Amino acid sequence: MTALAAGSLPALLPSSLSPAEVEERLSDPSRLARVAGDVQPPEGVRRSAVLVPILLHDAPTILLTLRAATLSAHAGQVAFPGGRIEPGETPEAAALREAAEEVGLDPRLPRLAGRLPGMVTGTGFHVVPVVALLDPPVTLTPQPAEVAEMFEYPLSRLLDPAAPERRSGVFGGRNREYWQWPHETQTIWGATAAMLRSLALALRD
């Protein structure tokens, strides 16, 4: 069981936002609307949703997980809590359910701020990111079969336009370009990095 409390985080970078500023900016529909529009899911693609939890410490952070190495999809990758949307579920309901299952987040705690644009991953999922605000302290219990590690990423890094790098690589025999965010020990790339960039565009001036 892990308690996420104020006062145990990396130093605040000069360009960070206060919790009140984060909440104010994400309550403005025009900010989420100015991010590039949704990619519509092709026929037969698997529908899924993730929760993008922002912890409103004095220096706000974003909760990320490292997926267990034994999983059949995206094993060992940095991700947001999330998974498949079940029949009859909204993306919001699916994201909250999956976060409860993966990291033990009480679904009554998050305040949902809105959706980021959906995207289709290279592995055939259409993912809807649901942004949620959380007031610390928050006690979480990760499910070892799904989550190898949890960590917090400083939201202040999202405000630096120079932080994410555009890279390319060959995946499945095809050359693909992708975003990657800096971190001391983890590789934050692919769909998760693209969602972080969408959130960054919504928060920046």
Report on the structure:
The chain is of the alpha+beta class. It has a single domain (2-6, 13-203), classed as Nucleoside Triphosphate Pyrophosphohydrolase, CATH 3.90.79.10. It contains 4 helices and 13 strands. The strands form 3 sheets. Strands 2, 3, 4, 5, 6, 7, 8 and 10 form an 8-stranded mixed sheet that branches. Strands 11-12-13 form a 3-stranded antiparallel sheet. The chain has a two-stranded antiparallel sheet with strand order 1-9. A hairpin with a 2-residue loop joins strand 11 and strand 12. The longest helix has 14 residues, at 190-203. The N and C termini lie far apart (37 Å). The relative contact order is 0.23. Residues 6-14 have low confidence and may be disordered.
Largest sheet: 8 strands, mixed
Low-confidence stretches: 6-14
Rounded to the nearest angstrom, the distance between the terminal CA atoms is 37 Å
Helix content: 10-25%
The overall average pLDDT, rounded, is: 87
Domain count, please report it. 1
CATH architecture: Alpha-Beta Complex
Number of E strands:
13
CATH superfamily: Nucleoside Triphosphate Pyrophosphohydrolase
What is the CATH third-level topology name?
Nucleoside Triphosphate Pyrophosphohydrolase
Q: What's the order of the H and E elements?
A: EHHEEEEHEEEEEEEEH
Rg for CA atoms: 16 Å
Instruction: Note the beta-strand portion.
Output: 25-35%
Give the secondary structure arrangement, pairings included:
Layout: E1 2-4, H1 19-26, H2 29-33, E2 46-55, E3 61-67, E4 78-79, E5 82-84, H3 91-103, E6 111-115, E7 119-120, E8 125-134, E9 138-140, E10 147-154, E11 165-171, E12 174-181, E13 188-189, H4 190-203
Parallel strand pairs: 2-8
Antiparallel strand pairs: 1-9, 2-3, 2-5, 3-4, 3-10, 6-8, 7-8, 11-12, 12-13
